[in-house]
Amino acid sequence: MSLTCPQKPALLIVGHGSTVNADSSTPTYQHAWTLRKKNIFSEVHECFWKEEPNFHQSLNQIEANTVYVVPNFISSGYFTEQVIPRELKLEGPITQHQNQTFYYCDPVGLHESMTEVLLHRAQEVLDSSGEKLQDPQESCLFIFGHGTNLNENSTKIIEHQVEKIRSRNIYGECQFAYMEEPPLVKDWKSLTSKKEVVAVPFFIADGLHSFIDIPVLLGLTEEGIPLQTKNPHLVEGRRLWYANAIGTEPLIADLILAQIKKFNETHRIS
Amino acid sequence: MKPTEFLNLWLHQTPPPWKIGEIKIQPGFTVLHQQDDPNQNSLRSISLENLTELVKSTPAGNFRPLRSSPDLPSGWILTPLSFEDLVLALRILYPSAISHWSAWSQQILQITPYQETAERQTGMYHCTRLLTLEQRQSLTQSVCATECMKKRLWEPADTIETKAQEIPLICAEACNYFIPKAREVVKSMIPKKNP
Ligand code: SF4
């Protein structure tokens, strides 16, 4: 008996993972479960650069003839362009290995619908606080990233998303800021004059950066002390709502499917 | 033969209970820790989704980076599972164990020498290629032999003793737990600069 149903492809979601932090792989597992339950794929696998199953191990486990590979990364760069193709032996968007065909899709963060996911996350942090913005036009939405050459393309994506959100006119302002390059997160109070601010960290998982480093930079807590106040945080007469990392948003599972759909359209796969 | 076909055949040919790592599998299918008795009322019935979380922590609640470390929490039961769900449970508990065992049994398992794994490392792990053979041997003793239940097939290799009702856990390449340890050893050899 085989698990593979010839009509259905397999999905391989590729994450970074960590050897020291359990939260790093959590969103990838969550999205894998969401998609498993939809019964679209014969198998849904997750694999990680720093955790088990690693890239090589996952290849051995997949039995379907058609495999969609979707990187659960917020942008393209060194990992999606070099490490993943090398480790999974991918030769381009379409790779044939013996009797298996691999379709290598773009990372989730690159999909145009990321704008909706960001806006949804911002609205959700407001809703779950039980408080409303007094006037969205008098408010600022911040998208926070890491910056520096950690990933050369992530700042471009953040800036592109900020442009798109600005054009929607939902918030009076939409700004980007980075942990390690200007405009700096720590300067947020001078980057906007708005009294009400919503901030969404553009990271794939909640971890050191989104849980500890950014709250310190925002002045919400001090080094070594976990964030104790709730949304909205009151900072020098302003109200600040700080969301969880964008990668933990359940809608990311839909972006994985959206990347597959886009891949099929681009490569005329029916 | 595909790994799942291989497992299915083995389950038909081998009398239960079946074992792998720290767990046992009973017909039906039921999966639980070898320390636990399925008739114990106190066992917590969990879903496969819960299992994904369970395997990430030690009984003391610490992060468990290595799925094959001998500290899987006990006190839970998965039942009844279809064959497909059993395969998924085994993939969560011991990633790639079935595919490695199936390939090894069919003599098609690819083994990656340490040097090749180290050459693939980037960034801060780039230096792991400098680990000497002696250092590697001592590290496989202190890490693999004490903290992991897998049998290594890359050098220095272990011998795999097959037991009738047990699926062996096989290591075909140095893992992401081993590599940072290799880095620590290499780094400790570099003399520190005087302040
Ligand atoms: S390298 Fe292999 S045997 Fe050693 S700890 Fe990692 S998985 Fe276990």
What's the topology here?
The complex is a heterodimer of chains A (270) and B (195).
Chain A: E1 10-15, H1 26-38, E2 43-48, H2 55-61, E3 66-71, H3 78-88, E4 94-97, E5 100-104, H4 114-129, E6 139-145, H5 154-168, E7 173-178, H6 188-191, E8 196-201, H7 208-217, E9 233-235, E10 238-242, H8 252-266
Parallel strand pairs in A: 1-2, 1-3, 3-5, 6-7, 6-8, 8-10
Antiparallel strand pairs in A: 4-5, 9-10
Chain B: H1 3-13, E1 18-20, E2 23-26, E3 30-33, E4 44-45, H2 48-54, E5 76-78, H3 83-93, H4 97-105, H5 114-120, H6 133-147, E6 151-152, E7 166-167, E8 170-171, H7 178-189
Parallel strand pairs in B: 1-7, 4-5, 6-8
Antiparallel strand pairs in B: 1-2, 2-3, 3-5
The complex binds iron/sulfur cluster (SF4).
Iron/sulfur cluster binds next to helix 6 of chain B.
Q: Give the structural class of chain A.
A: alpha/beta
Number of domains of chain A: 2
Helix content of chain B: 25-40%
Beta-strand content bin of chain A? 15-25%
Strand order of the largest sheet of chain B: 4-5-3-2-1-7
Given helix and strand content, the structural type of chain B is alpha/beta
Report the end-to-end length of chain B measured between terminal Cα atoms: 61 Å
Low-confidence stretches of chain B: none
Number of helices of chain A: 8
Largest binding interface between chains:
A-B, 28 and 31 residues
What does this entry look like structurally?
The complex is a heterodimer of chains A (270) and B (195). Chain A has 270 residues and is an alpha/beta fold. Chain A folds into 2 domains: 10-110 and 249-266, 3-Layer(aba) Sandwich (Rossmann fold); 114-248, Rossmann fold (3-Layer(aba) Sandwich). In chain A, 34% of the residues lie in helices and 20% in strands. In chain A, strand 4 (94-97) and strand 5 (100-104) form a beta hairpin. The relative contact order of chain A is 0.15. Helices cover 37% and strands 11% of the residues of chain B. Chain B has helices spanning 3-13, 48-54, 83-93, 97-105, 114-120, 133-147, 178-189, and strands at residues 18-20, 23-26, 30-33, 44-45, 76-78, 151-152, 166-167, 170-171. The chains are: A alpha/beta (270), B alpha/beta (195). Chain A binds chain B through residues 1-4, 17, 19-22, 29, 33, 45, 48-54, 56-58, 60-61, 63, 83, 86-87, and chain B through 2-5, 8, 49, 52, 56-57, 63, 65-67, 83-84, 87, 91, 95-96, 98-100, 103, 112, 120, 122, 173, 175-177, 180. Iron/sulfur cluster binds next to helix 6 of chain B.
